[in-house]
Amino acid sequence: MNKETLRVFVLFGNSASSIRYLSQHDPNFGLKYEIVGALTDNVVASAIKFFCEINNHCEIFPHRGLMISGRKKYYKKIKIIIDSYKPDLIICSGWMWIIAEPLLSSYAGKIINVHPADLSIVSEEGIPKYRGKNAVEKAILSGERELRSTIHYVSKEVDCGKIICLSPHIFHVQLNKTPSWHQEQMKLICDGPAMRFALEKLTSKVPQNS
Fold it and tell me: What are residue 146's DSSP bridge partners?
């Protein structure tokens, strides 16, 4: 009985640190799942070389200054690129643009994101407190002393999709350090391990071939 390998496509902004972590620390990398392709909007992204070195295609597709009014057009073109790779799952690793139609509905329940905050902490209105940009800074300024990353499904509402898992490790706030320093440290301590845990859960659901 051999498990079918999950085909993964990556959207990334610069370093794709969580994917780099998987390549170095997850024995299931390339076995239970494989990176079949990647795309960045950043022509100088440091991870472009990484994806080429692991013998995967890396698409470079700048947003060319498109504003919200042009987001649908941008994602329509991205969807065409991604479709050609026939992925089972799309991972956002440092992808800074809000996922929009038609990609969002075409891959509903198949797009996941790593977020550098605990999205299980909610406001009185029942929505995650530390959504969007500067999440680490928001958490620290709100008095949080323990930080965790979250892997969640991407939904129309930013950072409100179903949580897959939290990072297994907690990163304790150091008051003499900046939010950006904390976020950088979390890439290795929280983001990567959380992504590994999430993929363990997701690949366990992949049907087996006889």
Answer: 172
